[in-house]
Amino acid sequence: MTGASVEIVTPRHLTLLTGNFVEGRGYRTARAHGSDDWLLLFTLGGHGRFRNTHGAFVSARGDAVLLPPALAHDYGTDDDAQRWVFLWAHFRPRGAFSAHLAWPERLPGVRALSVDDELTTVVEGCLRRAHDLATSGRALREELAMNALEEALLRLDEVNPARLGTGDPRVARAVTFLREHLRERVTLDDVAGAAGLSVSRLSHLFRAAHGLTPMQFLERERLERAKLLLRLTARSVQDVAEDVGFEGAFYFARRFRAHEKCSPSEYRRARQREST
What we know:
This protein is an alpha+beta fold. Helices cover 43% and strands 21% of the residues. The strands form two sheets. It has a six-stranded antiparallel sheet, covered by helices on one side. Strands 2-7-4-5 form a four-stranded antiparallel sheet, with no helix packed on it. It is elongated and about 70 Å long.
């Protein structure tokens, strides 16, 4: 599909619109006044070109670009490319979801992230599901499609440098590994392997980033989940201990008291009184 330069006005009643384009040379979309919603464009193949009065950049596979409302924009197939394959979505964020759209700016106002091939495949699946749902005949098609779109945006925001800060990505991998293995027996060797670091290097970088050793961080995460289980479920202390990876209720209670200055049962009773 190939088109000429065109000024497009987005309908003001629009809540969610999705699509999958394969565009050849000459394709261009320009909006001098932007649109009244957000626009996500996710490149799967070929190259796209984005520009405004401040400059231009070229997108390749795995590049996600966000154009906020009322931002003048001009995008299309790159002049040096034969085609541009991309998924797109016009949308209005629900509730406080805009907090997940604070991506780095590639050009003033133009937000963009680049992701690896594994995440590209995941995001592509989410966006295709959003499109299938949005164009289906289901009664709740828009709500379901928004869920799929939001999953794609959350997966992208999860690797957003602005959210992660300037921290070492290897430490971030260690944190992810620890959180995903709360119930299991974990050693420093396991964490270091997941992070791609030696044990000594991991310990140094992790403490510098979090003020805790990896094992201290793991214990804190386990106890935070235990507190939620004690407050919100009727599971026994023994079961809660097992659910969060402690070897026995006695050791769990001892570590819990060291952090909270009360036993798990006392903590539960106090929180129950607060809620009545």
